[in-house]
Amino acid sequence: MDVFGRGKVILLGEHAVVYGRPALAAGIERGVRARVTGPGEMQLAIRPWGRDVRADESDELSRAFAAAVAEQPNARSVRIEVDVDLPAGAGLGCSAALGVAVVRALASAAGEAPSDDEVARRALAWERVFHGNPSGVDNTMAAHGGIAVYRRGEPLEPVRAKKPLRLVIGDSGESASTRVMVEGVARQYERDKPRTEKTLDAITALVQNARLAIEDGDVRALGQLMDMNQMLLGSLMLSTPALEEMCATAREAGAAGAKLTGSGGGGCMIALVADEATGERVRDALARTGRRAFVAEAR
Ligand code: MEV
């Protein structure tokens, strides 16, 4: 039986969420599929990456796998194979989707069907190996999907969208480390706490208004809020010339708004579009500038 961990986009509120602020996030259809292929020596094979690790090895992936195994009561020693349909290190929650899929595979081997909340909790142990002090938004969305407001330590708040959200996701092709980007913001916070707090407050206000815009089906307002969030992320030095250029291309092609998604410093941007035809136009405009892009829907 295949089990799944979902990729995600952060619609608004990345980085602020690390400081206990709310973020608006959405699961996407792409993700990671895992299956137990039989008894084994606690092995994990990530087929597209040609990686085959064991839980008792010392590299990062093996340690993350061991952390997930440690969370599984009565874990059975198995071999798990994984297919990945997400770019890694690109802000789409690839590592969390991987963690969630592995947690679900371990649970199925032990004859258990944990709740999404419990899957997310176990997958946080996996995420900590890669990201140090993650907010928990990625593993929570990878387990639950949907559109939701996430706040550290609080139950996930599903958001009822009046209309499905159409997004174009474009990959800058630059890879960035979430850990390094989060540390960069932490340094700014230490250097100038009042200014950084003001920026985080402003992002919080945008997230709150964006939730209302989604509930009202107001694509124009949501797009404007995303643009404003992008400016604030830029002021925290999280954007790059490539991401700025991609956001501008998307807006020129008709997107209602565009911003980086995830840690920034590279990785992906998202553009909000009102309809399918605009989505295709934006995707094609990004493709003409040499960027990989695809259309996604969040509901
Ligand atoms: C990464 O997808 C989102 C960040 O806010 C980090 C985190 O929430 O742990 C940058």
Bound molecules: (R)-mevalonate
> How far from one another are the termini?
26 Å
Order of helices and strands: EEEEHEHHHEEEHHHHEEHE
Structural class: alpha+beta
Walk me through this protein's architecture.
The structure is a single chain. The protein is an alpha+beta fold. It folds into 2 domains: 3-157, Ribosomal Protein S5, domain 2 (2-Layer Sandwich), CATH 3.30.230.10; 161-298, Alpha-Beta Plaits, CATH 3.30.70.890. Helix content is 44%, strand content 24%. It contains 9 helices and 11 strands. It has helices at residues 60-71, 94-109, 116-131, 137-144, 178-191, 193-216, 219-235, 241-252, 276-288; strands at residues 3-12, 23-39, 43-46, 51-54, 78-84, 147-150, 157-158, 165-171, 257-260, 268-273, 292-298. Strands 1, 2, 3, 4, 5, 6 and 7 form a 7-stranded mixed sheet that branches. Strands 9-10-8-11 form a 4-stranded antiparallel sheet. It starts with a strand and ends with a strand. Bound molecules: (R)-mevalonate.
Secondary structure blueprint with pairings:
Layout: E1 3-12, E2 23-39, E3 43-46, E4 51-54, H1 60-71, E5 78-84, H2 94-109, H3 116-131, H4 137-144, E6 147-150, E7 157-158, E8 165-171, H5 178-191, H6 193-216, H7 219-235, H8 241-252, E9 257-260, E10 268-273, H9 276-288, E11 292-298
Parallel strand pairs: 3-5
Antiparallel strand pairs: 1-2, 2-5, 2-6, 3-4, 6-7, 8-10, 8-11, 9-10
Helix pairs in contact: 1-2, 1-3, 2-3, 2-4, 3-4, 5-6, 6-7, 8-9
This protein binds (R)-mevalonate (MEV).
The site of (R)-mevalonate (MEV) has 16 residues, from α4 and α5.
